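Re-run with default settings, no changes from the original entry. Doing this only to confirm the output is reproducible before filing.
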Amino acid sequence: MFARQFALLSFALLLAACSKVNEVNYAKLTAGMDKAEVQALLGAPTECSGALGMSSCTWGDAKSSISVQFAADKVLLFSGQGLK
């Protein structure tokens, strides 16, 4: 039982350490990038919303996140919070 708990904890820490929401990937974002390029860089977004050709997607959690605003699936604005 202890070995299983240890393995699960190790896996969770490994995933957290490999987060794509970081300063390095944030620095790769540029205005005009396709939404598909951003998803290839950051993975699937945590949440998205939008209407009328505009959308806003967020990657990450309350501690660290990247938000990107799209117009016609092209990056318009982006911001980061708590990145390491």
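Residues 11-15 have pLDDT under 50 and may be disordered. Residues 54 and 71 are 5 Å apart (CA to CA).
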